[in-house]
Design goal:
By secondary structure, this protein is α/β, with parallel strands linked by helices. The chain has 6 helices and 9 strands, in the order βββαβββαβααβαβα. The strands form 3 sheets. Strands 3, 4, 5, 8 and 9 form a 5-stranded mixed β-sheet that branches. The protein has a two-stranded antiparallel sheet with strand order 1-2. The longest helix is centred in the C-terminal third of the chain and has 14 residues. The radius of gyration is 17 Å and the shape is globular. The mean pLDDT is about 95.
Amino acid sequence: GRQSGQIGLGWRVMPTLNIAHRGGAALMPENSLTAFRNATALGADGAELDVQLSADGVAVIYHDFRLNPGYTRPAGGPWLDGAGPRIKDLTLDEVRHFDIGGARPSSDYAAAHPLQTAAEGEAIPTLAEVVALAKAAPGFRLLVELKCDFSRDSAGPVALADAALEVVEETNFLDRAIFVGFDWGALAR
C-alpha cells in the first residue's frame, strides 16, 4: 500500500528519500561544501555527489572531467575560457586555487540555475571534507558517483574506486554511503 513518505512495491515498503543532486545545485553552487551544508539544514535525507581523482590521487568533488567555465574561475581571477584543464591533470593544491562559488553571469549555466545563490570563494572540496560534514548530520547519506568513463579525460576506474572507498572506510562512513556510477569497472572494484 501507499503511505505518506513511502512507496509500496508488492509486499515491500520502501522509504521515499529526499536526495540533493550535486548537493542541491538548484539552490547553491553545485558540489560545494555550502551546498552540502544547505542540504543538511533543509532536512534532506542525503546528497548525490561526483567524485574524481586529482593528479596526486586525492578524491575530489566535481561533476565535469574538465573545469567548467560556466561556474569555475581562478580565485579572484577572470572566468575560464573554452575547455578548462582536466581534473586528473591537477594536483589537490592546483584544484584548490579555483573558485566554484557562483555561476558566470550570462552563461548557459547561470540561465539553467536561476535560483542558485552564489557563495564566492568556494573551493572544490575533497570527498573527506564532504564525508566529515555528512557525518555531523544524523542519518545523512551520500550517493557517491564514481565519475569515470572510457574517455581520455577520465581518471582510471580502479584507482578512482580505490581512492573513494579508502576515504569512506577510513572515516567509518560505509554504512551511509552508496556507490553509483556508469562505469562497471569502477563499480565492480
